[in-house]
């Protein structure tokens, strides 16, 4: 029954993805930016429901931009979970733009793409992020640079924090964790680390029962004279504290 249930959730999720692509191609050209953001949030909430993932939100996401959200990174699900609570423009590696289905959805949601192989591209991305925030957008990054299992956060890369300093935008720390709805313990089903494949992570998620995604939004904060490295270090500690509350 677990396998049949997982297959059923997979098929429903795939249909939802196809509907999302249709919305992007057919409806988005007619929508205002606010309507697009609301549609992305509604789509993400529906996807989580279809895959039997409960969303628990602690604290409050920023109401409007300019702002930069900084979060720990555990899974491919993280972006959907944050979108379900509050639309924002994620910074993702440029490879994702070419991924079948996922690339279309990410681009439609306003993703900003960075070429990680080119070190100088970080400078361009800082400018693009700063410009987006000056225009009132909420941008989100995962400064670990890759995924971890959530128990030990990796050191934060500080380069993109500069965008908030440059645009004088506040940063909101956000912690993400996944909980087994039956035991209350940490769920590693959605993890996407090490030798994990995307398909393998998705299949574990589909077979897991009653996963709860817990988002904890901290208070937005200003630089207060800190440089990007000291601010990144402080934000990492803030997120650890949010996760453990």
Describe the structure.
The chain is α/β, with parallel strands linked by helices and 245 residues long. It has a single domain (2-244), classed as 3-Layer(aba) Sandwich (Glycerol-3-phosphate (1)-acyltransferase), CATH 3.40.1130. Helices cover 43% and strands 16% of the residues. The protein is built from 8 helices and 7 strands. The chain has helices spanning 2-27, 33-50, 78-85, 102-108, 121-134, 162-167, 198-207, 228-244, and strands spanning 53-58, 67-71, 89-93, 112-114, 138-141, 171-180, 211-217. The protein has a 7-stranded mixed beta sheet with strand order 1-7-6-2-5-3-4, sandwiched between helices. Strand 3, helix 4 and strand 4 (112-114) form a beta-alpha-beta unit. Helix 1 packs antiparallel against helix 2, helix 1 packs across helix 4 and helix 2 (33-50) crosses helix 3 (78-85). The longest helix has 26 residues, at 2-27. It is globular, with a radius of gyration of 17 Å. The termini are far apart. The model has no long low-confidence stretch (mean pLDDT 92).
């Amino acid at each position: 029954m677990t396998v049949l249930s997982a297959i059923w959730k997979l098929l429903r999720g795939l249909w939802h993805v196809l509907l999302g692509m249709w919305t992007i191609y057919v409806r988005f050209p007619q929508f205002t930016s606010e309507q697009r953001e609301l549609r992305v949030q509604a789509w993400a909430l529906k996807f989580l429901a279809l895959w039997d993932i409960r969303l628990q939100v602690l604290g409050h996401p920023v109401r409007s931009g300019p702002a930069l959200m900084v979060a720990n990174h555990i899974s491919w699900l993280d972006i959907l979970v944050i979108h379900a609570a509050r639309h924002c423009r994620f910074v993702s590696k440029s490879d994702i733009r070419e991924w079948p289905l996922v690339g279309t959805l990410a681009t439609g949601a306003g993703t900003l793409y960075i070429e990680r192989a080119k070190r100088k591209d970080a400078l361009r991305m800082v400018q693009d992020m700063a410009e987006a925030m000056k225009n009132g957008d909420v941008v989100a990054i995962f400064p670990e640079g890759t995924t971890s299992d959530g128990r030990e956060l990796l050191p934060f890369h500080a380069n993109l924090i500069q965008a908030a300093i440059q645009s004088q935008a506040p940063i909101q720390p956000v912690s993400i964790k996944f909980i087994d709805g039956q035991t209350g313990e940490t769920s590693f089903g959605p993890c996407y680390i090490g030798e994990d494949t995307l398909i393998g992570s998705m299949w574990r998620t589909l077979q897991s029962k009653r996963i709860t995604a817990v988002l904890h939004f901290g208070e937005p904060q200003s630089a207060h004279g800190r440089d990007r490295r000291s601010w990144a270090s402080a934000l990492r500690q803030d997120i650890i504290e949010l996760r453990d509350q």
